[in-house]
Design a protein that fits this description.
Radius of gyration: 17 Å
Number of strands: 5
Shape: elongated
Helix content: 40-55%
CATH class of the largest domain: Mainly Alpha
Largest sheet: 3 strands, antiparallel
Number of helices: 5
Distance between the termini: 26 Å
Strand order of the largest sheet: 3-5-4
Structural class: mainly alpha
């Protein structure tokens, strides 16, 4: 599975088919996990990010679990076994994918390779390839979400 965050959120299978992640809250959950790639996001933080302080559902933990299930189902329907990418690890959840699964990870790797390269033409090609990964502002469809604000 591949994840695009350098622009609007997009997901593709290993074969390059676009994955439909339904419903805004489910997409927001995925974006939140991608923003915190490599780290567990606490259940409390996810609830806050999805529903905000004053608009919690009556059963916030159950509501979050339902959204996690919907996300797992969307990934699994697109690529068998992909539901296991969403890992419950106390105190919350983690998207367990390598950095190369994100366009951001590939961007960083290309920039690092370019910096280490002594051949100007190769360096330019690597930087051109890295810039080609950008499809717009990072997390463009979540720009108004505090969890996606630039650090």
């Amino acid at each position: 599975m591949q994840f695009g965050v350098l622009g609007p959120l997009e997901v593709w299978t290993a074969q390059g088919r676009q994955v439909r992640v339904p419903e805004l809250k489910v997409r927001t959950l995925l974006a939140d996990l991608l923003v915190h790639h490599g780290h567990v996001v606490s259940t409390g933080q996810l609830i806050e990010d999805l529903w905000g302080g004053s608009t919690f559902t009556a059963q916030p933990v159950s509501s979050l679990q339902a959204k996690v299930s919907q996300l797992r189902r969307a990934l699994e329907n697109a690529e068998p076994g992909a539901r296991s990418l969403i890992v419950h690890r106390p105190p919350g959840y983690l998207l367990d994918v390598p950095a190369e699964a994100l366009d951001l990870g590939r961007f960083r790797a290309l920039v690092a390779e370019a910096r280490a390269c002594d051949v100007p033409r190769t360096r330019a090609d690597l930087l051109t390839d890295s810039l080609a990964l950008w499809r717009g502002p990072a997390f463009a469809d979540f720009a108004d979400q505090p969890f996606a604000a630039p650090a």
